[in-house]
Amino acid sequence: MSKKKIAVLTSGGDAPGMNAAVRAVVRSAIAKGMDVYGVYRGYNGLLNGDVEQMNLRSVSDIIGNGGTMLYTARSEEFRTLEGQKKAAKHCNELGITGVVVIGGDGSFAGARALTNAGVNCIGVPGTIDNDIACSEYTIGFDTAMNTAIQMIDKIRDTAQSHDRCSVVEVMGRRCGDIALQVGIACGATAILVPEVNYDIEKDVIARIIDTQKTGKQHFVVIVAEGVGGVNDLAKYIERRLGIETRATILGHVQRGGSPTVRDRVVASMMGNRAVELLAQGLGNRVVAMRDGKIVDFDITEALDMPRVFDKELYEIAKTISI
Ligand code: F6P
């Protein structure tokens, strides 16, 4: 009997730990007697035939590397039905019956489309934003937060020396999880996230004044990318309170770097689960973490789930960051 053939690709924004997930997929598949292929540059690789068979050594020495050895891309062609059919046809020609897609929810919608076109796909949540509703954790989140906090600790040093306020934008276009957790970890006087409406006077200015009254003379305000406007906010704080204020946008530095232990381990567990599902002949599923355990959901069910922002943690931040 011919060997089962599966493939793995990374899609959307890269995230530290994607390599660890690729490694887990390749090695778990080989352990189960399958042939495994790496697809380069996301779904584009399936369209262009940019696909290569992997062996145990193909994924040596990558677990500690940031980025993704398979490269990544957002594919316009694959968004079309024609593109999806073409990708499925290329899979059929190679005998590939399953694909592990490591990425965010846009990539999962692609995985559902490819499953509908006849190739079983399993999604693995890889994005620094932690914005996949069905999973309490996404690969790359921990590393991105640790990178951000290292930078913010340095910003704090200079803010403190000058008795200044620093307004820092962290990543998260639709999701405030990085801002919230980093804000707690650096004792931010105010944290602004896209999930919670804010009033600049009450949620920023009044909080700085209250903190000032306790004797503190330097302040850090953390703003999620989805809220934006850090330069204007810095100017406003300076004008309104007479405190010298600087704005910093951390940007893509948060996407790179060697993954933390947590990201390497979660990626390894999720990659392994994805292969188990394909081995059972399943497709259209997303691997997720719930209560610290690896689980999986139907992709449509997963994409329809509403994201829940941790308001309790947000309130704790307000209480203790004074
Ligand atoms: O990976 C998620 C994310 O970092 C978002 O927070 C951000 O908005 C986006 O990707 C930016 O991605 P790019 O610059 O690659 O388009």
Task: List the defining traits of the structure above.
Rossmann fold; 2 domains; 7-stranded mixed β-sheet; 4-stranded parallel β-sheet; 11 helices; elongated
List the helices and strands and how they pair.
Layout: E1 5-10, H1 18-31, E2 35-39, H2 43-48, E3 51-54, H3 81-94, E4 96-103, H4 105-116, E5 120-125, H5 141-161, E6 165-170, H6 177-185, E7 190-192, H7 200-213, E8 219-224, H8 230-241, E9 245-249, H9 261-279, E10 285-290, E11 293-298, H10 299-304, H11 311-320
Helix pairs in contact: 1-9, 5-6, 6-11
Q: What's the helix count? A: 11
Question: Whole-number radius of gyration?
Answer: 22 Å
| SS-derived structural category | alpha/beta
Residues in helices, as a percent range = 40-55%
Shape label:
elongated
Structure summary, number of beta strands: 11
Summed up, the domain count is 2
SSE arrangement, N to C = EHEHEHEHEHEHEHEHEHEEHH
CATH-assigned fold name of the largest domain: Rossmann fold
Percent of sequence in beta strands: 15-25%
The largest sheet, given as strand count, sense and whether it forms a barrel, is: 7 strands, mixed
List cofactors, ions and other ligands.
Answer: 6-O-phosphono-beta-D-fructofuranose
Distance between the termini: 67 Å
